[in-house]
Structures are given as C-alpha cells and as structure tokens.
Known about the structure:
With about 220 residues, this protein is an alpha/beta fold. It has helices at about 15-25, 50-60, 75, 85-90, 125-135, 200-205, and strands at about 5-10, 30-35, 40-45, 65-70, 100-105, 120, 140-145, 165-170, 180-185, 190-195, 210. It has one domain: Alpha-Beta Complex (DHBP synthase), CATH 3.90.870.10. The protein is built from six helices and eleven strands. α1 packs across α5. The longest helix is centred in the first third of the chain and has 13 residues, at about 15-25.
Amino acid sequence: MSIGAVIDAREMAPADVAEEVANVVFAGGTVIVPNDTSYLIGCDPYRSPAIDRIYAAKGRPDNRPLTMHVASPQEFLEYASDNPLAVVAAKRLLPAPVILLVSKPDFISDELAAGLSTLAFRVPEDALARGILERCGPLAGTTVSLAGKPRYRGDEDEEMLPPADLLVRYGPTRYDRESSIVDLTGAHARILREGVVSSERLSELLGPVERPTIKVRTQHI
C-alpha cells in the first residue's frame, strides 16, 4: 500500500482529524478521506502538481475533471450565485449525496475543469467530511475505487488503494449507493445519474427534472 500515513477517525476528535488532513493539504499533499457515499482522493484544487498526482494515481484520463468538494451550501453558492437553480438547490437540497454541475466560473482555471465549460460540486451529507472541508478549504477529488469494486467504503483491501500522503480510516460510509448527478446549467434541472436521491425527490425540491433522452433502436435480424 502506497500510503504515507494512516489515521483512524473513530479514535480521534473530529477537530484533530481535520487538522491532520489540513496539514497535508496545505503542504501540497494528497489525502484519502471519507465522504457520504464513498471515500475520495483529494487535494488543494489550486495546486497543479497535487492534481497531477491524483490523475496519475487513478490513471484518470485528462478529459475527466475532478469534483470540487465544499463544506456548505453557502460556499457552493460562491461559485454559482448567478444560477437560480443553484440557489434553490443550496436552500432546499444541500447538503446531500448529489453531484451538481454548474457553469465554470471565470476564476476557475481550464486545467481544473479539464477544458470543460462546467464544474461539478459536492456538499457531503456527513459531519466529519464537512468538518474536514471547513478546516482545509475546498478539495478537488474523485471517488476511490478498487479493482472489481465500484467504491472503497471501509478498512478492507487498503493495499489496493491508490497512492496518497494520508488515509483517514472511518469504516463504512453512510450510504451504500452512488451519489445522484444533476446538471443545473439549463432552464430545468437535468438528472444524469440517479443515485441515493431519487428523481422524484429531486423534482419535489428543484421543480421539473429532465431525463436524458435514450434512443431505442429496432434490431433487425
């Protein structure tokens, strides 16, 4: 296992865990920390070498951007205050196990957004995760997955984790399903992946929700 250090959040005060993570992030390191639906590997979003290390550790294609993880709905709106749907989501939905896509703000580099016009955000529904984010600022990250498993959720198989400077053990995550993905860049919210938060629930909170159009082809024999 190529992990620099390991701490167990179940045996420490949350503030001490957040301080340990912040020390690594502020020094330009990468961390594996718990989220509400999975663990994530993350870093300071404004340190290019750290971002490069995450891409290399995950073998992630350059055209797949990382997700910004922030501590609160209010912090999310710092990036999307001119988006009426984002304002509604911040008031009614967040924090929640969802990924929200908004138009990339001008002050965010094209590198961080992988050249796309959108930027993805998470405000996790987990107190420890939000405490970490409150202490060290936003994290740019992506889900930690293992060979043969969609996500890493606990202490098992740590030797298969990607390399990072710090791993925070926390046991199983709160939810055992993927986060929902919702595009907020149009006139109506558009669900790209249905996960923990159902499309019905999203409609209740955000108004009309569009679904991707799937073309059904007739098979000719």
